[in-house]
């Protein structure tokens, strides 16, 4: 992806920077003539730019570029990736603490936490996580969601492994915390098929549940729906609803990371395949359904939902810096 400095042409800068002081050196020198039409996404890469003469001018240029081309935000900025990865680790940790901890507390408190409360709490936690840091990383919290966003074209493949790894680490740390603080009852909150439920039946149920979950996520992320923060209510509500009726059958995991944490700490992986195959297959089918319903992905709403809007947050600081007077030269 071309850098921001390669995308700003002379006409664009003149439009937004008409008040620049006379005699100040030009920030960019582009191959296009001043009479050229504004750039679009198809010919931006054809322009070559010189780097700005100062840090102040560089910040100003990037801020002005965001105003002219808001859809060209560079989600692949490696300098910000550590924030996104921490967001996924932290969010998955919180989710699994609630999901696994609810099962442990229910088992050790002689029913003080009801099944309805235990399966609704993860949905409420996901809702909170999406609202308070979804803009940073997209709040996937789930390898099946990350892979689905990637297949949909809303998330780059090169970033998917990092997301999945930190989601698994976050889940493992959460269950280690639950085990040390609350105890290892109920397999540290493991998701297991219900009594007399065959593994293949539990797997098929997880597939269908994840199909619904990922369809909800992709649908509310689509620009066509345009529901904004209400997507958090939709996703959290679906998780709670799915758990209320299906947890006695399969555990209503819908998340390989959520099932990985308890199995790793307890050392029992006999049923783990259910919560890998089912959710991943359900996510793939959900992507196909999204294509049938709304066509290909990659729209601005889907990109922002899948990858977060951290660049915009950071760019706000650049815009504030750009509004300050340029430092004296000499």
Q: In total, how many beta strands?
A: 0
Strand proportion, as a percent range, falls in under 5%
Q: Could you give the order of the helices and strands?
A: HHHHHHHHHHHHH
Helix content: 55-70%
**CATH H level of the largest domain: which superfamily?**
Glycerol uptake facilitator protein
Q: What is the terminal-to-terminal distance?
A: 35 Å
Number of domains: 2
Judging by the overall fold, what is the CATH architecture of the largest domain? Up-down Bundle
CATH third-level topology of the largest domain: Glycerol uptake facilitator protein
What is the count of helical runs?
13
Judging from the principal axes of the Cα atoms, what is the shape? globular
> Given this structure, which CATH class of the largest domain is correct?
Mainly Alpha
> Radius of gyration, Cα only, in angstroms?
24 Å
User: Uncertain segments of ≥5 residues (pLDDT<50)?
Assistant: 1-53, 61-74
Give the mean pLDDT: 78
Largest pleated sheet = none
